[in-house]
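TICKET #2291
ISSUE: user wants both folds in one file
ATTACHMENT 1:
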Amino acid sequence: MYEGKNMALFEEEMDSNPMVSSLLNKLANYTNLTQGVVEHEADEDSKRKEVKGPRMGTFIGVYLPCLQNILGVILFLRLTWIVGTAGVLESFIIVFMCCACTMLTAISMSAIATNGVVPAGGSYYMISRSLGPEFGGAVGLCFYLGTTFAGAMYILGTIEILLTYITPSAAIFKVTDVAEEPEAMLNNMRVYGTCIIILMAIVVFVGVKYVNKLALVFLACVILSIIAIYAGVIKTAFDPPDFPICLLGNRTLSKRNFQVCAKFIESNNETKTTALWRLFCDSPFLNATCDDYFNRNNVTEIQGIPGIMSGVLADNLWSAYSEKGSIVEKKNQPSVAGAEDSKMGGLPYVFTDIMTYFTMLVGIYFPSVTGIMAGSNRSGDLKDAQKSIPTGTILAISTTSFIYLSCIVLFGACIEGVILRDKFGEAVNGILVVGTLAWPSPWVIVIGSFFSTCGAGLQSLTGAPRLLQAIARDGIVPFIQIFGHGKANGEPTWALLLTAGICEIGILIASLDSVAPILSMFFLMCYMFVNLACAVQTLLRTPNWRPRFKYYHWTLSFVGMSLCLALMFICSWYYALIAMLIAGCIYKYIEYRGAEKEWGDGIRGLSLNAARYALLRVEDGPPHTKNWRPQLLVLLNLDNEQLVKHPRLLSFTSQLKAGKGLTIVGSVLQGIYLDKCTETQKAEQNVKALMSVEKTKGFCQIVVSPSFRDGISYLIQSAGLGGMKHNTVLMAWPQSWKQTENRFSWKNFVDTVRETTAAQQALLVAKNIDLFPTNQERFTEGNIDVWWIVHDGGMLMLLPFLLRQHKVWRKCKMRIFTVAQMDDNSIQMKKDLQMFLYHLRLNAQVEVVEMFENDISAFTYEKTLMMEQRSQMLKQMQLSKNEREREIQSITDESRGSISRESYSSPLSIVQDAQALMTNDYQEEEAQLIHDKNTASRSAPAAEASVAAAVPEKVHMTWTKEKFVAEKHKNKDSNVSGFKDIFNMKPEWENLNQSNVRRMHTAVKLNGVVLNKSQDAQLVLLNMPGPPKNRKGDENYMEFLEVLTEGLDRVLLVRGSGREVITIYS
């Protein structure tokens, strides 16, 4: 108990709502734990002790890590080649597009990162909490794959620098034939790459702290290298370095196997051939047979780096794309074409190793601008993350964009085009091309780039397993949960093994130019969703969206998202489709199998907004007949444990709906809501669990009401929202309505029937619901029989069609029965009904059953007598509960004995009696007519329309207005001679209510006919007669329905709403 007196008013709530004074310390010292999430709060205090005080500022914590991650292998190994191939202008466009993409993404990321605390997990956390677990998991795994493949790319860059520029002699696979050299290089990459990845994995496993300590060393190497490039550019203005290039005609020659750039030299007044001569001719003598192009063209030597003042920029402005295996040629250089058939395979030309085009270069270049998330990943270690992340990230992108764009212009202005297009520096003795420009020595760049790629590879192998571990620990992707485990200190051992394995796939691809577009896809997809997350949150204007970073707008996010998507397809349309397919598969997997998480994500908010918009657009009125489908309100009964009594009702619902339309599953608890809160929640959980098992897609609504009867009324009146309201009520037949402890169940049932009619809603009553099939059962044969007695909107036709869409009922055949009286033309009726079904596009077998007038049997009188006696006893006898039960049981037994002794007479009756039973809630005297036997023959639909005419709503199917009028004003002469036989009348029968006798007569005869035809049917659908207008006969109404459906296994009583639900029109 709270002992203070100042806050006595709140003392009872102190357990659940703590004092602000005690909470402020926790809120203010919040680090990187997710606030309010139950699974973290238990560990909050213990974790807070472990977390060291945040101490890093913007420069050390965000700017430098982003700089290190962005600048890297592509800058040193491929940027010069991209400039030479695409030209300065197109290269500028490529770099500008990629940098604009990352800048717009950084703006969106800054908005998300400053909208509250971002714990460890960086981009994955931001996307998953903004767009939901499905998008978060899919994009998080894509980002993980991108980071992993980035590790492979950095390792391949490391080996390329090692084997091409540092120690070419270390190659394991060596070849003499130049044509086989690329394949040998790939094999060397694979062997060395596998060794390095094992070594790096061991380093990461042993201790991440060593990797983090070396990070600044690697960053220093990168910065020194870039400074060396700028220093070299300045030096070329007044003292260009000496890097001569040898050209034969306009073709660039590789200086690997010769030193002197001449065909022959003068030595001691003697002309001697050079090593170059011997490469093109079959002998060292001057009379040797030489290559035709070699004979026709001169050998010239030009400077590879003419300098920034030379004007070479004009030659490098335009692109020079080429096919694979083309010779690198200098523009505007005189050349004489040689013979067409001259073989160039073994000649010392510089060849292009891959086909080049604009979109491919975009894919290769894009990885050089990734790494913008490095700052947000360290949010827990920053003094003020909400200030440092936007400032540091945007400054880092601005810096690197300036470096890239300036390098493009400077490379194009300083270096000869043929050297720029010489990817591996073969024309300059195998020196790294960008190294030729550097000052004081090319080795500054070579060593610096080697260490920077090593460091970037280690960073990727450190970061990727942690990202996978964060996703695994969230528990949204079940099959990767094992990767959430690690060493005792939390290091992700299993995730590291998987990362090394996936990295090995990239190593086996072995080509830097092939791996780069793959990781471009994954990074672009991640950035696209960061932009989408920001745009969605901004447009939804959710109350929680309050970023401290104010310089964002949804249009910027949208442009960034569009640019990311465009770049994906520009890079490689098939890689883009594969990446989207992978993300889509992960999304659907999480949706179906993943753990449900409620993170207050934007997609949920978007769904709510879309639902609101759609509901406002849906007309608040009945849909057109073509769009009508049963929107169900399923009324369930619960037992004392709040468990569903008839689970098969939900099975039947899912079979009828197949996930389409609206389903509301409702139930009523008797009592007062304040007392029944816990039970209501338990009931809702039980119902939702059963809905999940039965695959019933819909909503659950539990109502607490003082009386069961009122609760059902509330549900019928208020379930649904706007235009999304139910139009059909589905319930189970009250099996125990005769038992005295459930003496109100039949009253509730009858009142529910009346209320659905008043609300103009259809009603489906499933009798013997526990015999209905489960969703796992399959009927391999059998019939669904429809008994069409009166027309109340065509729902009887529609229901079997809907049921047969489900695999349980798919192989059942549909049969339609209708009844004819003695003055109807049965043959014509059958033809008309077949034509009607043909127009409705329904396949069904049609049968017209003839039911003629005959005397009321003694069995009917006896049955009616038992019913009335039972009714009177319940009303008048004031017996104890036990005595009443015994009395009722004896009456029931006597009734059953009577039924067993009485054999059914021939299945003949009067159709007007059937109509009297079905339609007595309309004008009673009109509904009980016995038509004149001299009336002309007419079709069955016209006969049934006489009932429909009494319904005020317009019917617009196949019956004309004239037929309605003619039917309505038919001769109403009564002929009651068939109702009783005075010669066989027992004394106690004379006092019976003759209306009850007629109704019982109809129920008995109709039941006999249905049994005769449909006893073996898998399901019987039957028009449900309405309850009497006089409420005194409600219990008799239940008896009529019981007799009508007696002996049938599965019955669905259908009572239409009166409006048309099926049409012949398209």
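ATTACHMENT 2:
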Amino acid sequence: MLHERNWFAFILLLRLVFSVIPLQVFPSLPADGNPKESSPFINSSMASDMEKSQQYDGKNMALFEDEMDTSPMVASLLSSLANYSNLPTGSKEHEEAPQLGTLMGVYLPCIQNIFGVILFLRMTWMVGIGGVLGSFIIVFMCCSTTMLTAISMSAIATNGVVPAGGSYYMISRSLGPEFGGAVGICFYLGTTFAGAMYILGCIEILLIYIVPQAAIFKMEGLEGPEAEAALLNNMRVYGSLVLGLMALVVFVGVKYVNKLALLFLACVIFSILAVYAGVIKTAIDPPVFPVCILGNRTLLTKAYDVCAKTVELDNDTVPSQLWRTFCDSDALNATCDEYFSNNNVTEIQGIPGVTSGILAENLFGYYLEKGVILEKRGLASVADEEGPSPTSNRYVMSDITSFFTLLVGIYFPSVTGIMAGSNRSGDLRDAQKSIPIGTIAAISTTSIVYMSSVILFGACIEGVVLRDKFGEGVNGNLVIGTLAWPSPWVIVIGSFFSTCGAGLQSLTGAPRLLQAISRDGIIPFLRVFGHGKANGEPTWALLLTAGICEIGIIIASLDAVAPILSMFFLMCYMFVNLACALQTLLRTPNWRPRFKFYHWALSFLGMTLCLSLMFICSWHYAIIAMGIATCIYKYIEFCGAEKEWGDGIRGISLSAARFALMRLEEGPPHTKNWRPQILVLVSVDAEQNVEQPRILSLTNQLKAGKGLTIVGTNVVGTFLNNYADAQRADQSLRRLMETERVKGFSQVVISSNLRDGTSHLVQVGGLGGLKHNTILVSWPQNWKHPDSHLRLKDFVEVVRETTIASLALLVPKNIASYPSNGERFTEGHIDVWWIVHDGGMLMLLPFLLRQHKVWRKCKMRIFTVAQMDDNSIQMKKDLITFLYHLRIDAAVEVVEMVSDVSAYTYEKTLVMEQRTLILKQMHLTKNEKERENSAPTGHMSHNTPGGGTASPDCEVQRTWTDKGGAKDQSQASAGKPEFNLRRMHTALRLNEVILKKSKEAKLVLLNMPGPPKNRMGDENYMEFLEVLTEGLNRVLLVRGGGREVITIYS
């Protein structure tokens, strides 16, 4: 029996395994190369219904059959995750591209990009100008910045799959599309300008050190600005040619770049090894690179043949070439330059060697102005009385003004290749593993080389040679090449190919970065650059990259381009550190990086270093770069596609919102901070569209207070049956809010009837201390019609609820006649009829309205009503003083009302009571019919509180007083004719006065009377309000919430 069970289990296991193997529930990535982050692993829509049903057949999982449309089997999930690919889909050629590991995919590309043009062309000059100590500080500071950035980047990279886009993907998914797009574009620009810098370095090596005769614009015989202009023009011409050639290589295919990369990288490594070998050789046998010094000034090699004023030739003293350079003839008694005559010529060794002790002389900086002659420290000389000669064909001179911050800006690009691996994350076999290991290892290697190079250069090379940027004092040799072994040409050729390789890497990475940004769709005008060849190569992005790179080529100066790209890289690194710090501090549940050697303090330190270096390098470039990033940020915010990536900024918003809500719970706001937090109650039709959209226009015009706005509506029905209707109503509200530019929230409740739904909205709107304090509801149209009886009751109940809850109430009447947001009143008045004090709402609302462009040019007038025993003149003076202290500009008028009751008032009251009685009888008849249709036969009687029975008529005739007792209708109405008469008199007289004074006003605001305590008087209450506002075009009835909302104090 046990044996049979084992076989049965074995067969069942085989069925399970073989049924799982052929399944492929999840697709790879979409065509844009980005995963579907809302459901990053599961997309069951791609599988057919047959495949879905097969997942559950024969697996003893019938209990979960209903979930098979949305939830796959665990075995299918694990199979799909194992086969997950982060490569964008394309042609077979692209899909079969080699998957690179840590060494080839990250470490070596980073090494190649970091060891670039600055190391070979400017490192020795930086040590000579800044000194060993200053240069070491610069190198240490820059390398520390990149190491801290790499640590933060490693944490982000190991927190999930990193598709194509590398650094941009990490920043955008951590800080959101606005920050991600802004920083991504800046990083793209930095990478593009880096390509220009590498190309310029390549041309500088070619034209100065390899084939100077290839110059199109000849520099021989030119001095000063003319020679400089000729050099720059040569750089532009040859740089454009090389750029076109490199772009063609990248266009042909990235696989050729990868093949050439090995050759270029070998050149870099051999060059660096040659430098170290040369350092070792200087301790044994220093190379011979003599430097000729006149006094203490360094002479150009082309200015002499031998380092002497005269030479002995056949026992005869003859002038040398140096003599002819400084004197007007070959005669020994010729007139010579004063400095030449007063100082001797000495020849010193340019490479004295590591054991020479030259390090002490090169320890401190030697900053120079442009055009200053390079002088050797410690040598005595007799200075010219009139200063040195302005000619530049004799001495080695400084070509730019140097200072510490300039050196930082020029050097920093030499450490900016740290993201060369992450930019190619789409080609990596395991990006989460390769990016941290490869990047940190590459930075460690290059940092050691840079720091040791600073010390070794200062210990081996003479100071005047270090400060000689183009090697003009050592026979035109590349200065670092003079130190290399076995020949300077090893460095020259190696650095040439190194710059070529780095340029190709930049032209390969930058278009892919732009393509990733474009395919995300966050910047609409860049979407065209997301397209490419059939194999996914970014053709259009490559063209744009080449065009931007040409701008750097036109600048033509390596020293001018370097600080530009430093800004963009530093900004990118700063936000990488910020992203890691935020994710760590917010402790989001999804923040689970495999890389554990990170800390938020290190990220903040790296961010601080980046920001400091930006302003150290060039404060004006830093401001421009930040301006560019800000413009891109605002463009994406207003015009870009909305993305939800679960970014850290959203987490900050949630934390800040929670903190703010907890603070609001501490107590009610002070009067000075009070602003209308409005709950707008709207009704929707059968199609779930808002019936009176103009009420949201008024909401927008009232929002100068910048408070909370909630637009709520009610859907009649049950949650299970009417949820889809509620969703449609919510979308309708959101669309209308967007159209009317109302910033706030929508809320839809489902209830069995209109009354309960409105009550729920009033009770539960808002969250914590951020709740509404004002209700905005439109006047019920056609309330006198029998079919609108429920709307009438609901409206009066809202008035009662706001009174109980101490909420302010705004009721616009004739809402359809209110202006839209596009209209403008060029003149007119906003009239306020201040009958009773409501906490200042009537004063505050016109002020808020006049902040909006619709009402801005309207004047404000305030009317108040004086009783028979009031002093009208004194009331006006007091009101003017009160408005002055409130800082409100308004005209003031006090109105006296006649107290006699006219015959028309009696007639109006009688008509109102008759209409109310008719409406009640019609409503009663309707209720009786409903009861007859719904009540069972033989059970028509109703139990009374006393235990007897009463007819429906008897029940309806009973009414509840405010004390909770029941009275007979005849008793409750005792004295009512006189009560209604007085109210009607007030409404008529007020209406007459308001029509007389404010008929032409653009808007009339007046106090709204309170609701009757007895619900049997609702129709009369509505009639009073109707009479009060009769004949007025736009009326806003205002009822205060029982607290002061405006104050005279500061």
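RESOLUTION: both attachments delivered.
EXTRA DETAIL ON ATTACHMENT 2: Residues 167-210 form the longest helix (44 residues).
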